[in-house]
Automatic annotation (TrEMBL), chain A:
One of its GO terms (cellular component) is ATP-binding cassette (ABC) transporter complex. Keywords: Cell membrane, Membrane, Transmembrane, Transmembrane helix, Transport. One of its GO terms (molecular function) is transmembrane transporter activity. It comes from Dichotomicrobium thermohalophilum. CDD domains: TM_PBP2 (cd06261). PANTHER family: INNER MEMBRANE AMINO-ACID ABC TRANSPORTER PERMEASE PROTEIN YHDY, MEMBRANE COMPONENT OF AMINO ACID ABC TRANSPORTER. The lineage of its organism: Bacteria, Pseudomonadati, Pseudomonadota, Alphaproteobacteria, Hyphomicrobiales. This is Amino acid ABC transporter membrane protein 2 (PAAT family). It comes from the Bacteria.
UniProtKB/TrEMBL annotation, chain B:
GO terms for biological process: amino acid transport. It is found in: Cell inner membrane; Cell membrane. Keywords: Amino-acid transport, Cell membrane, Membrane, Transmembrane, Transmembrane helix, Transport. It is a multi-pass membrane protein. It comes from Dichotomicrobium thermohalophilum. It comes from the Bacteria. Belongs to the binding-protein-dependent transport system permease family. HisMQ subfamily. The keyword Cell membrane applies. Residues 86-378 form the ABC transmembrane type-1 domain. This is Amino acid ABC transporter membrane protein 1 (PAAT family). PANTHER family: AMINO-ACID ABC TRANSPORTER PERMEASE PROTEIN YHDX-RELATED, MEMBRANE COMPONENT OF AMINO ACID ABC TRANSPORTER.
Length: 373, 394
C-alpha cells in the first residue's frame, strides 16, 4: 500500500491575461518551448536550403528567350524554359496541332469555352446552374468533338487518335467521368437493391474493377478488347483506353454514390413509399437528388484520382501530357532537359487537381453549413 | 379474398422483382456468352491456341532481379517467371508499406504540430505529393533525379567500404550464416532476446498496475538482446560473415543488390502513399474529441506522452481501416514499375511474358487473379478488424 501524506494546497497562479498581436502569435506558434524553438530554427534552415536555390534556378537564372538549345547551353545553371516555350503547343494539344499551328485556335476555343463553363458552375451567384451543368455534360463534348475534330464543320480533320498532350488528358478524364456517372448511379442503386441477383451482379462488378490496377485494365483493353467483338468492329487505341477507363471509373463512382445513398435517412424512403411512388419515381425525385448532392465531394475525389491516373495511358503508348513531356525531353533537339519537362507537366497536373480538391473542400463546408440547423 | 389477389400480378412487387432479376441476369449472361463466342471465333481466325500448356515451356528471356527464386536463362519455365513476378511485387510492396507507414505517421503528426513552420511544411508536402500523378513522380525521380545525380559504378558513393550507391542501384553487404553451432546460437539468442522484450514489457505493465511506477521494460529487454548477441559473438568466432560487394570490370558484384528501378519505385511509392497515410493520421487524431486532449493536459501530461498514451490509441480505430486500403493501393500501384522496368508482376508477366507467348487471355486472367485475391484478402482483414473494434466500443 502506498503511504499517505498530508497534502498542502499551494497558492494558485493568477490566470493568464489574454494576449494578442504578432509577438504573442510568434511566441505561441514558433518559440513557445525549447523543442518548438529548435523545430522553428530547423524549419528556417530548411527554407534557407530549399527556397533560394529553387527561385534562383526557376526564375532568376532561367532561360526563356530564343528558340534553340544553344540559349540553354550558354547558361546551364538556370532552368531551360525555352524548351517548354518552343514545345508548348505540342505539350498542350499534341502532335497534330503542333504540326499545324494555323489550326490551334480550335482546341484553344474548346479550352476557353470549357473554362467559362467551369467558372459558371463553380462560382456561386450564377443562374441556370442545372441547365448549364446538363450542357457541360452532354452538349459540350459534342461541341468539342465538332470543333477540334473538325470534319462536321468542313475543317481539316484532326482525328481523336491525333489528339495529344493536355487535350488528350482532359478528353480521357472527361469521357471517363461523363460515361461513368450514369453507370455508377445504376450500380450504386443495384448494390443497395433488395433484389438479391441484382445486388450480387453489382457487387461482383464493383469489386472486380476495384481490385485490379488500372494499368492491367488498360493492358486488357488494348490487347483483349478487339478479341471480344466481331472482327469487323475496329477500335482505335484512344477508344480502347476510354472503354477501360470508363469500366474502372464506374466502379469507383458507384462507391462514392453509395456513400451518399446510405446517408439518406430512412424516413425519406418511407415518406416516398407513403406517397405511393414507384421505385424509379422514388429514386429520381426524392432519393437521388439528395444523395448526389451529398456525394459530390466523393465524386470529385474519385475524379481527381482519375485525372491523375489518365497519365497511365502513356504506358500503352498514347501521347497524353506526361508522355508528350517525356517524348519531347527525349527528342534529339532537347535531350537532357527531363527535369524541366517533368516539372512543367507536374505543375499543370498540380494546378488542376489542387483546384479540384479545394473546390470539393469548399462544397463540403457549404453542404455542412446547409445541413446545420 | 386476401388483398393480394386484387392487385394484377404484373403490379405485384414480388413478381416484378423476379421478372426484373431474370431479365437482367439473362442480359448479363447473353453479353458474357457473346463475348465468349466472339473471342473463340477471333482466336480461331488468327490461329491462336490458348491453354495452360505454355506454363511448362522454358522462358527465352533474362530476368535481372530475383533475390529469392533462382532463375537460369534457358532452363526456367514460365510458371516460375510468374512466381518471380509475384515475389518482386511483394518485395517492393512490403518495403514501401513499411517506409510509407513511418513517414506517413511523422508527416501526419507534424501537420498537427503547434509549430507553425512544421505544420506548414507537412501540409505543403501532402499537397504536392497528393496532387501530382504517381507515374509522373516515379519517372521524375528515376529519370530526372537519380539517374543524372548518382555517379557511375566506378565513382560510387560509398559509406565505409561496405555500402555503395551509384546509378545502377544500391549495394549492401549480405549477411551469410555460416553452417555451425554458432549460427544456431545466434538464432537462439535473437529469439530469446525478442522474447525477453515482450516478457520485460509485461512485467513493467504489471509493476505499473500495482505501484504506479513503470520501470523501463522495453529498455531492459533490448539490453538483454544486445548482451545475448554480444555473448554469442564472444564465444563463437564467426557465426555470421558478410559478403561485401566488389567492383568488377563494369559493375559491382556480390552482396545485396537493390537495382535503381526498385529503389526509384520504392522511393516514389513511399513518398506518394505517405501523403495519403498522413491525411488518415490527421483525420484520426482530429476525430478524438477535444475533451480528451484537455483532460490529458489537465493531468499534466506533456505533449509527446499525451499523444502516445491518450490520443494515438483512440485515433488508431479511425486511422487503421483507410490505411489498410492505402496498403492495397500501394501494392496495386507497384504495377507502375513498367515505367522504370522493375520486374514485378505486371511488367514481367503481363508485359514481357505476354509479348513472348501471345497468350493474352491466360496471362491477363492470372494477373488479375493475383490482384483480386489481394483485394479480397484486404477487405477480409478490414471487416475482421471493424468487427473487432466494434465489440470494444460501447
Amino acid at each position: 500500500m502506498a503511504e499517505t501524506g498530508v497534502f498542502e494546497r499551494k497558492e494558485s497562479r493568477p490566470p493568464p491575461i489574454r494576449q494578442t498581436g504578432a509577438w504573442e502569435w510568434a511566441r505561441e506558434h514558433l518559440f513557445g518551448t525549447v523543442t518548438n524553438t529548435i523545430l522553428t530554427l530547423l524549419g528556417l534552415y530548411l527554407i534557407y536550403l530549399l527556397i533560394p536555390p529553387i527561385v534562383q534556378w526557376a526564375i532568376l537564372d532561367a532561360n526563356i528567350s530564343g528558340s534553340s538549345r544553344a540559349v540553354c547551353e550558354a547558361n546551364p545553371d538556370g532552368a531551360c524554359w525555352t524548351f517548354i516555350k518552343v514545345r508548348f503547343t505540342q505539350l498542350m494539344f499534341g502532335l497534330y496541332f503542333g504540326a499545324n499551328p494555323e489550326q490551334v485556335w480550335r482546341p484553344t476555343l474548346a479550352f476557353i469555352v470549357f473554362a467559362a463553363l467551369i467558372a459558371w458552375l463553380t462560382l456561386p451567384p450564377t443562374p441556370y446552374k442545372p441547365q448549364v451543368a446538363l450542357f457541360t455534360l452532354i452538349g459540350f463534348p459534342i461541341f468539342t468533338y465538332a470543333v477540334v475534330q473538325g470534319e462536321w464543320l468542313g475543317l481539316p480533320a484532326a482525328n481523336v487518335e491525333e489528339w495529344g498532350g493536355f487535350l488528350l488528358t482532359l478528353t480521357l478524364a472527361s469521357v471517363g467521368i461523363v460515361m461513368a456517372l450514369p453507370i455508377g448511379i445504376l450500380l450504386a442503386l443495384g448494390r443497395r437493391s433488395q433484389l438479391p441477383i441484382i445486388r450480387a451482379i453489382s457487387v461482383i462488378y464493383i469489386e472486380f474493377w476495384r481490385g485490379t490496377p488500372l494499368i492491367t485494365i488498360l493492358f486488357m483493353a488494348s490487347v483483349m478488347l478487339p478479341l471480344f467483338f466481331p472482327s469487323e468492329v475496329d477500335f482505335n487505341k484512344v477508344v480502347r483506353a476510354m472503354v477501360g477507363i470508363t469500366l474502372f471509373q464506374s466502379a469507383y463512382t458507384a462507391e462514392a454514390i453509395r456513400g451518399g445513398l446510405s446517408a439518406i435517412p430512412r424516413g425519406q424512403y418511407e415518406a416516398a413509399d407513403a406517397l405511393g411512388l414507384g421505385y424509379w419515381q422514388k429514386m429520381i425525385f426524392i432519393i437521388l437528388p439528395q444523395a448526389l448532392r451529398i456525394s459530390i465531394p466523393g465524386i470529385v475525389n474519385t475524379f481527381i484520382a482519375l485525372f491523375k491516373d489518365t497519365s497511365l495511358v502513356s504506358i500503352i503508348g498514347l501521347l497524353d501530357l506526361l508522355n508528350m513531356a517525356q517524348t519531347a525531353s527525349r527528342s534529339i533537339e532537347w535531350k537532357g532537359y527531363d527535369f524541366e519537362a517533368y516539372v512543367f507537366a507536374a505543375l499543370i497536373f498540380f494546378i488542376c487537381t489542387y483546384g479540384m480538391s479545394r473546390y470539393s473542400q469548399y462544397i463540403e463546408r457549404k453542404l455542412d453549413r446547409e445541413t446545420q440547423r | 379474398m386476401s388483398r393480394n389477389n386484387r392487385i394484377p400480378f404484373y403490379r405485384n412487387p414480388v413478381y416484378r422483382g423476379i421478372a426484373v432479376q431474370i431479365t437482367v441476369l439473362a442480359l448479363v449472361l447473353w453479353a458474357l456468352y457473346t463475348i465468349f463466342t466472339n473471342t473463340v471465333a477471333n482466336l480461331n481466325e488468327r490461329g491462336i491456341q490458348t491453354g495452360f500448356g505454355f506454363l511448362t515451356e522454358t522462358a527465352p528471356f533474362a530476368v535481372g532481379f530475383s533475390p529469392f527464386i533462382d532463375y537460369k536463362l534457358g532452363e526456367t519455365p514460365y510458371w516460375v517467371v510468374f512466381l518471380i513476378g509475384i515475389q518482386n511485387t511483394i518485395i517492393v510492396s512490403v518495403l514501401g508499406i513499411l517506409a510509407a507507414t513511418i513517414l506517413g505517421f511523422i508527416v501526419g503528426v507534424a501537420r498537427l504540430s503547434p509549430n507553425f513552420l512544421l505544420s506548414r511544411f507537412a501540409s505543403v508536402y501532402v499537397e504536392i505529393f497528393r496532387n501530382t500523378p504517381l507515374l509522373l513522380q516515379i519517372m521524375f525521380w528515376n529519370f530526372a533525379v537519380f539517374l543524372p545525380l548518382f555517379p557511375g559504378p566506378r565513382e560510387s558513393i560509398t559509406v565505409g567500404e561496405e555500402i555503395f550507391l551509384n546509378n545502377r542501384g544500391l549495394y549492401l553487404p549480405k549477411p551469410i550464416l555460416t553452417e555451425s553451432v554458432g549460427a544456431w546460437a545466434l538464432l537462439a539468442a535473437v529469439v530469446m532476446g525478442i522474447f525477453a522484450i515482450f516478457a520485460f514489457n509485461r512485467w513493467a505493465k504489471a509493476k505499473q498496475y500495482h505501484t504506479g511506477y513503470r520501470p523501463p521494460g522495453r529498455l531492459y529487454g533490448l539490453l538483454t538482446l544486445v548482451v545475448l548477441v554480444f555473448l554469442v559473438f564472444l564465444i563463437f568466432p564467426a557465426p555470421l560473415s558478410f559478403e561485401i560487394p566488389e567492383l568488377g570490370r563494369f559493375n559491382l558484384t556480390g552482396g545485396i543488390q537493390v537495382p535503381l528501378p526498385l529503389f526509384s519505385l520504392w522511393f516514389a511509392l513511399t513518398t506518394y502513399t505517405a501523403a495519403f497515410i498522413a491525411e488518415n493520421v490527421r483525420g484520426g487524431i482530429n476525430s478524438v474529441s477535444k475533451g480528451q486532449t484537455e483532460a490529458a493536459a489537465s493531468l499534466g501530461l506533456k505533449r509527446p506522452t499525451m499523444l502516445r498514451l491518450v490520443i494515438i490509441p483512440q485515433a488508431m480505430r479511425v486511422i487503421i481501416p483507410p490505411t489498410i486500403s492505402q496498403y492495397l493501393n500501394l501494392t496495386k500501384n507497384s504495377s507502375l514499375a513498367v515505367a522504370v522496368a522493375y520486374e514485378e508482376l505486371v511488367n514481367l508477366w503481363a508485359g514481357i511474358a505476354l509479348n513472348q507467348t501471345g497468350q493474352a487471355l491466360v496471362i491477363i486472367a492470372m494477373t488479375i487473379l493475383v490482384y483480386e485475391t489481394l483485394s479480397l484478402l484486404t477487405s477480409g482483414i478490414l471487416n475482421w478488424y471493424n468487427r473487432r473494434v466494434q465489440v470494444v466500443e460501447r
